[in-house]
Amino acid sequence: MDLNDALMCFGLTRQESTIYLTLLSDGALTGYEAAKRTGISRSNTYTALACLVDKGAARLMEGTPVRYIPVEIEEFSNNKLEHLRQVKQFLQEQIPVRTEAMEGYITIQGDAHISDKVSYMLGHAVYRIYFSGENQVLDSYREILERRGAEGLKVVVITNPPYELPNARIYLADRKPGQIGVIVDSATVLTGDVGNGDQSACLYSGKKNLVDLFKDSLSNEIKIIELTGRNESK
User: Fold this and answer.
1) What is the total count of domains within the chain?
2) Which domain range does residue 149 map to?
3) Which of 2, 119, 129, 155 is the most buried (most CB within 10 A)?
């Protein structure tokens, strides 16, 4: 991800983000100056500048000629996040929520989507988390696992040695590169492979037979690890 990609996550187009970055680096500019410095056509530049003003990323500086000044990134991003928070609250209040448990099998594709789902699972766990994966995979969720353990949840990790994680029960065993397995509250499970970009895929389900199958597999592996003395309590 580059700066343009990051700004596009806040609702800017690529041309708008390019001009916004130019305003941040060069200061107040006229439309002509912005077009000249970015290489974007003058008509597209003026359109983009107007959109930046509408989206709260730039403001007009009155004068002759009119200049555009950037809204600092902290203010712009905080305003966007606050607006999204309000929209989120509105949606949560207005959209009916299904109360029955999800018991199907869902395929989640792509590292970004898998990471989002795992983070959501870990962040919304109530009682316990079981996490199986190699060090490199585990490190992506280290902060949230440590925090959930500190909050009093039971956090059990199976990973390849060496590894330490505060507030967690650690079991050391060889893990296949890219494999991941997560069980939350004995209610939902995610398992599959990551690290292949858009080609990564995981199965997610709240179906009891799959959750129990994966949980039993981890429990049996933990028993073997305990017998061999490779477990570490942290």
Assistant:
1) 2
2) 105-233
3) 155
Give the whole-angstrom CA distance, residue 205 versus residue 189: 6
Same domain? For 142 and 205 the reply is yes
Residue 123 sits in the same domain as residue 210: yes
Label residue 100 exposed, middle or buried (CB < 10 Å: 0-12, 13-18, 19+): exposed
Q: What is the pLDDT of residue 141?
A: 96
pLDDT at 227: 84
Query: Is the residue at 87 inside a domain?
Result: no
pTM of the predicted protein model: 0.74
DSSP per-residue codes, 75-144: HHHHHHHHHHHHHHHHHHHHS----SPP-SEEEEESHHHHHHHHHHHHHH-SSEEEEEE-HHHHHTTHHH
Residue type, 91: L
CA 217 centroid distance within chain: 28
Backbone φ and ψ of 204, nearest 5°: -125, 140
Q: In this structure, are 109 and 63 located in the same domain? A: no
* Residue 228: per-residue pLDDT: 79
pLDDT of residue 232: 58
Q: Say whether both 122 and 229 belong to one domain.
A: yes
The predicted-structure confidence for 132-177, as pLDDT tens digits, reads as follows 999 999 999 999 999 999 999 999 999 998 899 999 999 999 999 9
Do residues 28 and 11 make contact, with C-beta atoms less than 8 angstroms apart?
Answer: no
